[in-house]
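lol forgot to send this yesterday, sorry. struct tokens for the thing we talked abt
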């Protein structure tokens, strides 16, 4: 009796102390994620969209792609080298991370490594005191651009190559030099490339990766098998039209030709978040050659649609020339490329439209309404349908309607809230009730550049007809690409 009395009294006291402004109901919670999820560094990486690669070294001077390791270091002499110019080109292109080949297969080191005689120390450049890695990282730091490094596992110069312990010790000594001395490194690149008659060699990858993680806390490790970022399986810059960021890491190994198709599409049942990076060069070769020219703008745009537009990051190689500068014709092409992307995507024709959806998690005003796909947050604000409902026989859908007149577009952009997992397996797009696209995965960003060119209509409906859990759409755009002229249209 007394207990009940006390309870009653204390409840009354609590109630009388309630502030007048207490909300009458609490906010609807976000849905549970569908695992696996990206790490903080993987999410940062994904949002960069375009990364630069700079292939530079003795090959630049010997006009080759694969050096022999027998070059005389004297050939390396970039008399006008200015790494600030490379970084300025990145800034002008809107690129926030640039990766340098600190060592390519020839074994020539762009920094004065203590562990080899094949480096800038043997070069007359900067009177044997040069350090390209330092000039590059200093210039990047000054301009707020992040850096990454490539240290080729295959080394055609070093005599230890082929001997497991001595070579792995050498390789790891160089990793320590690079990752201790040059500040924060955001990506490191490992590959399995090697000549068919190269000596057999076992790389101690798991030791390398542990060392990298020990020395750099926010780095993404790239290789055929991750663990941070995976190779897309080709050097054309194209991902699969279906592309999952999820894959089974246990099925991957480095330098294994039988896994390239799996790398290109990923795996909807994959247990690891391991998104793909699409490496490609602006020119035919990876190193600069006087005889080569940059790809056409239309080719670069196609690569963009097939990499960034397929849930991947585009890793674009821009090789400095023998002067030590990025060539004027490459810079010109990059300016056109940046201008084209800005022209296409700066205007979202859906912006002034009304928008509705099959259902809303928590109902209207819950913080999960369809209008959130038109704001500028492409990760953490999103439309979510109700949990339980299959939303009738139409499934989950979201519809954009022009207030008056017709919409005229040739690109549809869809983005998922990947912070809560990649979900959509299958989707379709309808204009005024007529299906114009049958698609599969979406992921961070899906760009449909319409095969038949421009469409006009009043309503655009996106139907999700298969997903892992409920679909969460963070952004939708309708765009007009004036550079897109499908053949025969
Ligand atoms: C490398 O090892 C494989 C099997 O372990 C062997 O068949 C091959 O001949 C070796 N290659 C060289 C160049 O030693
Ligand atoms: C290559 O990958 C396949 C598929 O995962 C695997 O069965 C095979 O053992 C791998 N080969 C090597 C040399 O790792
Ligand atoms: C990947 O792993 C999951 C979970 O173990 C499994 O269900 C799936 O079949 C695997 N994928 C492949 C291609 O083997
Ligand atoms: C390298 O590019 C710069 C322009 O950025 C140019 O001035 C220089 O002549 C080029 N060097 C060669 C060898 O083409």
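and heres what i got for the seq, position by position
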């Amino acid at each position: 009796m007394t207990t009940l009395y006390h309870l009653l009294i204390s409840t009354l006291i609590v109630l009388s102390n309630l502030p007048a402004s207490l909300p009458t109901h609490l906010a609807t919670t976000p849905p549970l994620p569908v695992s696996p999820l990206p790490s903080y560094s993987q999410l940062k990486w994904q949002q960069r969209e375009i990364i630069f690669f700079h292939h530079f070294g003795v090959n630049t001077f010997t006009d080759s792609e694969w050096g022999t390791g027998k070059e005389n270091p004297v050939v390396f002499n970039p008399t006008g080298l200015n790494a600030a110019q490379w970084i300025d080109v990145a800034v002008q292109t809107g690129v926030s991370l640039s990766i340098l080949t600190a060592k390519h297969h020839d074994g020539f080191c762009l920094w004065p490594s203590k562990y080899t005689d094949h480096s800038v120390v043997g070069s007359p450049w900067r009177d044997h005191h040069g350090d390209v890695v330092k000039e590059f990282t200093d210039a990047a730091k000054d301009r707020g651009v992040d850096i990454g490094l490539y240290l080729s596992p295959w080394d055609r110069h070093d005599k230890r190559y082929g001997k497991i312990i001595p070579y792995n010790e050498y390789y790891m000594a160089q990793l320590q030099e690079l990752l201790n001395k040059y500040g924060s490194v955001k990506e490191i690149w490992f590959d399995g490339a090697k000549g068919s008659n190269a000596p057999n060699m076992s790389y101690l990858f798991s030791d390398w990766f542990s060392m990298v993680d020990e020395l750099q806390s926010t780095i993404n490790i790239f290789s055929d098998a991750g663990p941070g970022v995976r190779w897309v399986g080709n050097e054309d810059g194209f991902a699969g039209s279906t592309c999952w960021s999820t894959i089974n890491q246990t099925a991957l190994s480095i330098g294994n030709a039988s896994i390239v198709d799996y790398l290109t599409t990923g795996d909807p049942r994959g247990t690891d978040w391991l998104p793909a990076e699409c490496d490609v060069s602006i020119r035919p070769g990876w190193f600069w050659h006087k005889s080569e020219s940059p790809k056409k703008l239309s080719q670069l745009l196609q690569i963009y649609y097939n990499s960034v537009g397929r849930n991947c990051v585009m890793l674009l190689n821009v090789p400095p020339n023998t002067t030590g500068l990025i060539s004027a014709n490459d810079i010109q092409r990059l300016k056109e490329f940046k201008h084209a992307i800005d022209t296409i995507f700066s205007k979202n024709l859906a912006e002034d439209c009304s928008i509705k959806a099959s259902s809303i998690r928590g109902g209207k005003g819950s913080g999960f309404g369809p209008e959130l796909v038109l704001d500028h947050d492409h990760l953490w604000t999103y439309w979510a349908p109700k949990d339980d409902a299959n939303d009738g026989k139409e499934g989950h859908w979201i519809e954009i309607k022009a207030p008056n007149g017709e919409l005229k577009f040739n690109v549809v952009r869809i983005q998922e809230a990947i912070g809560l997992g990649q979900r959509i397996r299958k989707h379709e797009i309808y204009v005024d009730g007529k299906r114009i696209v049958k698609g599969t995965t979406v992921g961070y960003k899906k760009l449909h550049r319409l095969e038949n060119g421009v469409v006009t209509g009043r309503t655009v409906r996106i139907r999700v007809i298969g997903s892992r859990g409920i679909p969460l759409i963070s952004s939708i755009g309708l765009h007009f690409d004036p550079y897109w002229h499908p053949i025969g249209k």
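The first helix runs from residue 2 to 16. anyway ping me if u want another try
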